[in-house]
Predict the structure of 5-methylcytosine-specific restriction endonuclease McrA.
Amino acid sequence: MLKSELIERAARFRSAEGDPARHLHDCPALVLNADYTPLSYYPLSLWPWQTAIKAVFLERVDIVASYAREVHSPSWTMPIPSVIALRQYVKPSEFPAFTRFNLFLRDRFTCQYCGSPHNLTFDHVVPRRLGGRTSWENVATACAPCNLRKGGRTPAQAHMPLLVPPIRPTSWQLQERGRGFPPNYLHETWRDWLYWDIELEQ
């Protein structure tokens, strides 16, 4: 199976068929930066339809694509935007916030001791009782069994080497990680903007 087919199957794009009947809650807009790249990949940069339409009227965004679903007022009709692009570029911060989600994303949602994707928690590589800090460089994703097995020891003491040493990631690195975990529910008009770097087929 071709790479593009795998990605498309994983993402399970919703067809635009039946768009006129779709519920308004199912009409979020994919938000692109002024360079036409998503503001974020995971979580994906989405705005509710009301926010997207307001931004259009305030001339803060350009409409790139629309749903077939429309909204009406007594004086106008407007297709709901499905993809919008900011008119002013928003520079992303260099480093992401140190959160549990971002930690899991950095570590690809797998235990850094055994590779399991199940029962994830986090582990202090150098235990706090030994002076270890709660920081990017000293916290790793671990499954509950490995965390319990390691206990209050260092990886060397527990004979449990890390698969990848923990680092402080940049926002760009986390964005790259996020591209490997496409959301499960994407509209087909989004595909060109999410997977623009797929290798072209010969």
